[in-house]
Design a protein that fits this description.
alpha+beta; Pnp Oxidase, Chain A; 2 domains; 9 strands; 33% strand
Length: 214
């Protein structure tokens, strides 16, 4: 096995103090997202890990792309018959995680996922590149398949079938809004003394900010 014990680096790009933080976590996220986009990261700055759990508490996670956000929450699209879709139906508590590691930053968001309206889903679906629309129609996400060749054959058949037609939105394809109740902003620090701040939504609907030990 590869020896990983001595693989490490120090974090020296910046510090995060209470005075740096905006009172509104959505505005703080917007600031960091804009900076991540401006950084022109090699990886997609809109990529986020979506963690879900079954009704029995068995967790799973995967990376998807954030497609929009505002003060209502964070939106992504997927096949609702996928593992994550089935788990959200059983247990809507969901966690999102952004890893902007070249900036030595992370953001974690906990909340509750709810399905988007069909109208909104269809509007976004038809705004996607046609090849992506056909791919969504061709794939029964998370289901077993005998080979990649079978999937590619199905994709090519549908691509030809809908070459001059509008691709129908798959019935099982949809989107989710994750409404947050907690944010955590992490800035790497020297000697592993990282700066961490949580925003917790209180009963009074205000966000309470707390510094956390690293």
């Amino acid at each position: 096995m590869t020896d990983l014990h001595n693989i490490r680096r120090d974090y020296q790009r910046g510090r995060l103090s209470r005075a740096d933080l905006l009172a509104d976590p959505f505005q703080q996220f917007e600031l960091w997202m804009r900076q991540a986009l401006a950084e022109k990261l090699n990886s997609d700055p809109t990529a986020m890990t979506v963690a879900t759990a079954s009704k029995d508490g068995i967790p799973s996670q995967r990376v998807v792309l954030l497609k929009s956000y505002d003060h209502n929450g964070f939106v992504f699209y997927t096949n609702q018959h996928s593992r994550k879709g089935k788990e959200i139906a059983e247990n809507p508590r969901t966690s999102l995680h952004f890893a902007w590691l070249t900036m030595e930053r992370q953001v974690a968001i906990d909340g509750v996922a709810s399905a988007l309206s069909r109208e909104r889903v269809e509007q976004y679906f038809h705004a996607r590149p046609k090849a992506s629309q056909v791919a969504a129609l061709a794939s029964s996400q998370s289901q077993a398949i005998d080979s990649r060749a079978t999937l590619e054959q199905r994709y090519q058949q549908l691509l030809e079938q809908y070459a001059e037609q509008q691709v129908p939105v798959p019935e099982q394809w949809g989107g989710y809004l994750v409404t947050p109740n907690r944010f955590e902003f992490w800035q790497g620090g020297e000697h592993r003394l990282h700066d961490r701040f949580s925003y917790q939504l209180a009963a009074d609907k205000h966000w309470h900010i707390t510094r956390l030990q690293p």
